[in-house]
Amino acid sequence: MSLHVVVGFGPAGAATARLLAGQGHAVRVITASGRGPEPGIEHIALDAADSARLIDAARGAAAIHGCAAPPYHRWASAWPPLAASLCAAAEATGAVLVLLGNLYGYGPVDGPLTEELPLAATGPKGRVRAAVWERARTLHEQGRIRAVEVRASDFFGPGVTDGGHLAARVMPRLLRGKPVSTLGDPDAPHSWTYLPDVARALAEVAADERAWGRAWHVPTEPALSVRQMVDRLAARAGTGPVPVRALPPAVLGVASLFSPLIRELKEIRYQFERPFVVDSSAYATALAVRATPVDEQVAATVDWWRERLAAGG
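The structure assignment produced for this chain is given below.
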């Protein structure tokens, strides 16, 4: 088995590290603050944007999984040095660079999102995320590193809390049978990427050289609207139909005065005001991981949230 370095321990980083450890790999997690010991996982505290220290921490690794993300309001300033450090570590160590990306780089498009679309976003968050991959791809094409990016839609599932649009703002209320609120049109089709599938895709592409040199969409089930997902979650929870309300623009405007997150979401509001549908057929054609059936996703998510809330989480 190999050494895998996972940079970041948010929902995706944690799921990936634990999956790799469960597969028998040695796993080294890099975070700014570090963590206590965990079976099969070594935690190291360092600033991943410090390329010299990251290179030292990644020596001997088969793959470096870039799962970290700076604070949302600091993307424009913090992503470039982090991306440069990840690429420098991959070049110095020979490890495969596996980047966890998202779909911001495409910007608004008509029709399903495919990997062949240009990274044509004009907003600052979309442009900075596009630049992360463009840097890595250029170095890959120059033969200086081996790189691959895995792009996910909005995370959903066990382990997804504050940042998920079907997580902390929805699940506690839904489990009590109370109405929930959402950005944009609650009836617009929307793709949700199941967190365990993200981890499985990151682990797979790290080990399969056929995947390197391009971006892939994580295997994702067919799109369902927020209302449809809430209906399924409520049915599984036994809390009956739960009303779903779109947050009025005036409410969002007031909230943005006090919440940096709400302010920053303005750039990607289009993802919830119109259909936002991911085509992951390229991955399904070429590689092995398949999307978990949505009913299994829903069951696992409801069970996880019930346990979390019962424990006081």
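Interim note for the steering committee: The two ends are 35 Å apart (CA to CA). The first helix runs from residue 11 to 22.
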